[in-house]
Amino acid sequence: MEISSPHSTNTTIFKASGRRRRRKSSGDLPSASRSAKRSSIYRGVTRHKLTGRYEAHIWDKNYLNKSQNKKGRQVYLGAYDTEESAARNYDLAALKYWGTDTTLNFPAANYDDDYKEMQAMSKEDYLASLRRRSSGFSRGASKYRGVARHHYNGRWEARIGRINGNKYLYLGTFSMYLLLILFIKNYFFRSL
């Protein structure tokens, strides 16, 4: 039960199970405490509430979603066991997206070798390689999610996770990798 205090307009008193407790309003708190609580001290890193692992994300401000008339999207970089490894992978993605002038979690000199390596790769390929480094990503041979080599016959197989309450939807096996990718792209465009 919420009761307004007659003494102050900034303070609310809660009466629950016979006890009273005071909660300060945001006007009574210092400015640092008023800001949203962050789950990590690093830029681009959040802690997942259920798994406890650290996820790295980056905001792609150049992406344009024409169907929703929105600009920008959040790009998932992977889930990591340590906060520092998630922050380092965010830094690598930020270097690929925005170059050496961007704000990083660690000094740019730490990434000299990685920066030279990423110049030879496309943005999508490099992000896929970052996700592969994460502890929460499948270790299949493909850079595409849901695509892996079948363990028994070596053919490529495709699955889509969590469809209509099922654990996954099996799409089939293919002898050639490119045929599988074409099938998946056509499947998604047909279903839209």
TrEMBL record:
Residues 1-42 are annotated as: Disordered. Pfam families: AP2. The chain crosses the membrane at residues 168-189. Residues 1-14 have a biased composition (Polar residues). Residues 41-107, 143-175 form the AP2/ERF domain. InterPro entries: AP2/ERF_dom, AP2/ERF_dom_sf, DNA-bd_dom_sf. It is found in: Nucleus. GO terms for molecular function: DNA binding; DNA-binding transcription factor activity. One of its GO terms (cellular component) is nucleus. One of its GO terms (biological process) is regulation of flower development. It comes from the Eukaryota. The keyword Membrane applies. Keywords: DNA-binding, Membrane, Nucleus, Transcription, Transcription regulation, Transmembrane, Transmembrane helix. PANTHER family: AP2-LIKE ETHYLENE-RESPONSIVE TRANSCRIPTION FACTOR, ETHYLENE-RESPONSIVE TRANSCRIPTION FACTOR WRI1. Belongs to the AP2/ERF transcription factor family. AP2 subfamily. This is AP2/ERF domain-containing protein. It comes from Dendrobium nobile (Orchid).
